[in-house]
UniProtKB/TrEMBL annotation:
Residues 35-47 have a biased composition (Low complexity). Residues 28-54 are annotated as: Disordered. It comes from Extibacter muris. Gene3D superfamilies: Glutaredoxin. The lineage of its organism: Bacteria, Bacillati, Bacillota, Clostridia, Lachnospirales. The keyword Disulfide bond applies. This is TlpA family protein disulfide reductase. It holds the Pfam family Redoxin. GO terms for biological process: cytochrome complex assembly. InterPro entries: Redoxin, Thioredoxin-like_sf, Thioredoxin_domain, Thioredoxin_ResA/DsbE_sf. One of its GO terms (cellular component) is cell envelope. The keyword Disulfide bond applies.
Amino acid sequence: MKRRRAKAITIITLSLALLLTACSTGKEEKKADTGSSESLEGSNASSDASDKEFGTFESETLEGEAVSDDIFSKADLTMVNIWGTFCGPCIREMPDLGELSREYADKGVQVVGIVSDVGEAKNEKAEEIVSTTKADYTHIVASQDLMSGILGSVNVVPTTIFVDKEGKQVGDVYSGARDKAEWAGIIDKLLGEI
C-alpha cells in the first residue's frame, strides 16, 4: 500500500513538473516528453539539403511581412522558439528570450519565434503578448508550409530548435522553458561548435 502511494505521488510530481515547464499542443503524443533535450526524427546533421529542419517554407511575420526559410541565412546561429498564446511557460520565458536576442545580436545569433496557434498576421492576442514581454524579435505565424512541416512533429510548446545559416539543426531539440542563464549556456556552447 505504501509503495503504491509513493509511486502515485512520484507520478503526480513528475506530471506537475512537466506542466510547469511546457504545454501540450493538443496533438497525440508519440512518446512521453520529460522536458529534456532530444532530437526530432530525421534531423541528423549532414551535408544533404533535405536535412534542413524547417525545410522550404513561406509565411508571414506577426506584423504581416513576407518571410521564408531564407531568414536563417541572416545569422550564424538561429534560436527558433516555437510557442503558443495559450502556454504560460512559453510566455514566462519570452522576456529572457528578448534579452538574449538583444545581447547576442552582435555575436551572429538571432532569435525567431513561431506562434504555433496563430495562422494569420496581426493577431491581437499574440501581438499583446510580444509587446508585454518585450520579446521584440521576429515572430512567424503558422503557415500551411510550417503546419505540414516542422509543426507537425512538435507535441509540446515551447520547443526550441537551433539551426545554422543553411537551416540545418545544430545540437538538440529542447522541450520546455528554460531561464536566461540556461539558454545563454546552450547558445555559447553551440557557437563554439559551428
